[in-house]
Amino acid sequence: MVGVEHALLLVDPYKNLLSAYRLLFEQAGLALETAASLREARTPLAQKDYPLILAELDMPGEESLHFWKEIKTKAPESYLILLTDTVVDEEKYERIFDAGVDDLILKPFSPAKLLVQVRRGLRQRLSTRQADKKYVLPLLDPVSGSLERIIYNGDYFKRRFRQELKRARRHRDPLSLLLIKISGEGREEKDYFLRELAELIRRLIREDDVIGRENGGFGILLYKTDQNGSKRMKIRLAQTIRNHRPFREDSFHFLIKSLKIQMYTIPDQKKIPRKFSTIVGDIDREISSIMISHLVNSN
């Protein structure tokens, strides 16, 4: 069973449901703490971070989305699932996920389905905690602790891809992915090359763009960037690398020659590496499921 310090939190105004949920989760080996209102939930949420929070979307009293946005800002690692039996229009759907909600489950649902979603959330939260040990490249500046210099590791980069793709899908915006592949494993000069390359990339991309380590090289997420914009960035990046004076040394010739930049734009382009296409498929299925549930409930 999950220890008390790792208990989940359930926020629901109906006390009879609190008891039923507690029985369900305890039988599944999951410890559960409960609160009957957002006001009541404030105390335990201020005292510790919960791995997963399960709550009703529409709670009496305080506006729930404002409340949960505040909580997720303070505890972004907590996986937040909201439950609702009301039809959610497109505007509210965007507000829900913009508030930091990780999942939305429409009623009615079976106990088995709820447990599946909860366990999925716990697995994702665990992988996030592991990936949150960010891979920070030691750049040229010895004082390299600023956020602008963070390079995410591969696992966290994939999670950011999932988050940015969800946001792009909700707002119907394009999302582009640049993958920079580099050979030369084991070469002493590669570490220096990666530090220099990371610095060059940081100078070129926007503040909101995301850079991470990917398959020995780098990945870049360009939000609201279509194929034309992605192509322009690829050209600028290639030119900057070619013109970078330190890279003209003979010792970097092999690395420069092996470097390849691949670009993918969603939804314009289908041929995307499997590890990312799997995430695209997952997000599309989630969105389709929610849309179908909305149609069923509205009828």
Structural account:
The chain has 299 residues and is an alpha/beta fold. The chain folds into two domains: 4-132, Response regulator (Rossmann fold, 3-Layer(aba) Sandwich); 147-281, Reverse transcriptase/Diguanylate cyclase domain (Alpha-Beta Plaits, 2-Layer Sandwich). It has ten helices and nine strands. The chain has helices at residues 15-27, 38-47, 64-74, 90-98, 111-131, 154-171, 189-204, 227-243, 253-258, 274-298, and strands spanning 8-11, 32-35, 52-56, 79-84, 103-106, 175-181, 210-214, 217-223, 260-266. A hairpin with a 2-residue loop joins strand 7 (210-214) and strand 8. It is elongated and about 75 Å long. The two termini are 41 Å apart.
Feature tags:
49% helix, Alpha-Beta Plaits, 4-stranded antiparallel sheet, alpha/beta, 5-stranded parallel sheet, 299 residues, 2 domains, disordered N terminus, Rossmann fold
What's a quick, concise take on this entry?
The chain contains ten helices and nine strands. It has helices spanning 15-27, 38-47, 64-74, 90-98, 111-131, 154-171, 189-204, 227-243, 253-258, 274-298; strands spanning 8-11, 32-35, 52-56, 79-84, 103-106, 175-181, 210-214, 217-223, 260-266.
